[in-house]
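Inverse folding, one chain.
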C-alpha cells in the first residue's frame, strides 16, 4: 500500500477533469441505449458474464435499481439470463452478439469525437501520456473504499 499523501485539491482537479470529459462524451452518444444499459453492456464486455448482484456491486448500485434495465436489455435481445452453474438460485447475465453490436454502435460517436479532439488538440507525446493516464484512472476506478490518507 502506498503511503504518499495526496491533497484534496489535487484529487479535485482530477475529478473535475474526468467528470468534464465524461459529460462531454455522454453528450456525443448515439442515444439508443440508456446510460444504465450502456454501463451494463460495457461491464459484460469487459468482465464477462456475472450475476445481477455482481453487476450492481461493480456499478455501485443496488440490484433492485437495475431490474428494469436487465429486463429491457433481455427483451431487446442484448443479454441473456442463464442459470448460474455454481448456485442454482442465481442466474448469470451474458451479453449477446446483438448486445455487442448495440454497444459498439452506441459508443461509435463518442469514440469518433474523442479521436478527432485528441488528434487536433494533443501532440503525439501528449496522446501517449493521456493513454497512460487512462490506465491509471481505470485502476483508481476499481479501487475499493478503505482507509485513505489525504491532506486537507
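Residues assigned per position:
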Amino acid at each position: 500500500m502506498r503511503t504518499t499523501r495526496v491533497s484534496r485539491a489535487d484529487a479535485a482537479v482530477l475529478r473535475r477533469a474526468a467528470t468534464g470529459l465524461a459529460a462531454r462524451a455522454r453528450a456525443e452518444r448515439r442515444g439508443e441505449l440508456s446510460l444504465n444499459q450502456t454501463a451494463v453492456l460495457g461491464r459484460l464486455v469487459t468482465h464477462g458474464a456475472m450475476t445481477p448482484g455482481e453487476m450492481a456491486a461493480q456499478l455501485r448500485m443496488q440490484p433492485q435499481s437495475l431490474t428494469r434495465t436487465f429486463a429491457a436489455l433481455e427483451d431487446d435481445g442484448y443479454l441473456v439470463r442463464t442459470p448460474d452453474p455454481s448456485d442454482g438460485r442465481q442466474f448469470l447475465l451474458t451479453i449477446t452478439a446483438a448486445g455487442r453490436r448495440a454497444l459498439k454502435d452506441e459508443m461509435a460517436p463518442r469514440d469518433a469525437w474523442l479521436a478527432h479532439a485528441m488528434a487536433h488538440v494533443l501532440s503525439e507525446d501528449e496522446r501517449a501520456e493521456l493513454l497512460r493516464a487512462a490506465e491509471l484512472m481505470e485502476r483508481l476506478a476499481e479501487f475499493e473504499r478503505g482507509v485513505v490518507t489525504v491532506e486537507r
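Residues 147-152 have pLDDT under 50 and may be disordered. Residues 123 and 129 are 10 Å apart (CA to CA).
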